[in-house]
Amino acid sequence: MSFVKVGIVGGGVMGSGIAQVVAQTGVPTVLVETIVETDVVRDHLEGRLAKAVDAGRLEPEVRDTVVANLSYTADLDDLKGCEFVLEAIVEERGAKEVLFSTLDESLGPEAIFASNTSTLSITTLASATGEMRRKRFLGCHFFNPPVVMALVEVVPTVETDPDVVEAVRDFMQRMGKTPIVVRDSRGFIVNRLLGPYMVDAVRLLERGLGTIEDLDTAMREGAGVPMGPFQLIDYIGIDVVHAMASNLYEEYRTEAFAPPELLSRMLTLGYVGRKGGFGFYDYSAKPPVPNDELVRGFKRSGEAAPGSGS
Ligand code: 3HC
């Protein structure tokens, strides 16, 4: 099963990566970004393609297929005619509900809607649309970086038509992904497990169990993960990880998900990780330098030092 035309809403790391994956299968793909200028989104994406070709990670012909099939716009009306529309905007319930309700009115009844949310309820988002659309609504949760990570969590609600689930699962397989069908439970499988892991790593750092590098090395060399927890948090984005923890804490009310104070303070100061150049590591240096001074600084600052109460 393939789609004649696909729409992706949100030109950030996830949205643009997913758009590349769809477009490289030869499907005309519309990437909508309403906040950042579309030229900036295009430049980022084409810059990534060029780097991947130079590094031998992408065949030039595949790059050409992406460029030929991908169009960029700031206008949601350009999604008309899309059979499958996937949302990858900011992880905020209100923003996603407004988007889906707008799209429900403007797109034909056959269009399938999907959300890339990881920590909001698909049932809640689907309820921003009408009764008929809810049968054609599901979650499709990709992982960062979407061009590399194979898994997609496909998340039907109790109302999703089984044929829609099958069609989407099949489409994911055609794109070279590994879809698994997961029950609609916030965090699904991966973030339910990964969230507490990242939160715990920050708590261990607050408590002085080791330096940033110690903890990263421990997990890379001792548990075989490709990135240590702080490399991973910086890679995903401190803003995204904080939103993930907050959303899951709101749902499950367990300490395991509660955003640690250090993470909240870093976010307040605008430290978002690799994409902003600064987080648990300083990316202005090559290779990036761990930012242990920052943790010590928070401890010296006198106000309830992170981890000092335990
Ligand atoms: N087209 C365009 N870019 C490509 C490409 C292609 N065909 N193939 C690779 N690239 C890019 C990659 O995206 C990556 O770019 P980036 O560094 O800017 O992100 C770069 O080329 C290197 O890719 P490689 O696979 O060759 O490089 P590595 O072997 O160094 O692996 C990694 C990098 C895949 C990020 C690896 O370190 C890894 O697997 N890390 C863990 C990632 C992870 O756990 N992701 C899940 C996070 S949880 C999540 O996403 C949930 C969400 O809800 C928050």
List descriptors.
2 domains; 10 strands; Rossmann fold; disordered C terminus; alpha/beta; single chain; N-(1-d-carboxylethyl)-l-norvaline Dehydrogenase, domain 2; 45% helix; globular; 12 helices; 310 residues; binds 3-hydroxybutanoyl-coenzyme A
Assigned CATH class of the largest domain? Alpha Beta
The structural class is alpha/beta
State the fourth-level CATH superfamily of the largest domain: NAD(P)-binding Rossmann-like Domain
Helix content: 40-55%
Structure description:
With 310 residues, the chain is an alpha/beta fold. 45% of the residues lie in helices and 13% in strands. The chain has twelve helices and ten strands. Helix 6 links the parallel strand 7 and strand 8. It is globular. It folds into two domains: 6-181, Rossmann fold (3-Layer(aba) Sandwich), CATH 3.40.50.720; 190-298, N-(1-d-carboxylethyl)-l-norvaline Dehydrogenase, domain 2, CATH 1.10.1040.10. The longest helix has 17 residues, at 38-54. The protein has helices at residues 13-23, 38-54, 60-69, 93-106, 122-126, 162-174, 190-206, 212-223, 229-236, 238-252, 261-268, 292-300, and strands at residues 6-9, 29-32, 70-73, 84-87, 112-115, 137-141, 151-156, 178-181, 281-282, 289-290. An eight-stranded mixed beta sheet has the order 3-2-1-4-5-6-7-8, with helices on both faces. A two-stranded antiparallel ribbon has the order 9-10. The protein binds 3-hydroxybutanoyl-coenzyme A (3HC). The site of 3-hydroxybutanoyl-coenzyme A (3HC) has 19 residues, from helix 2, helix 7 and helix 9. 3-hydroxybutanoyl-coenzyme A is lined by residues 48-49, 52, 57-58, 118, 143-145, 147-149, 191, 194, 226-227, 232, 236, 240.
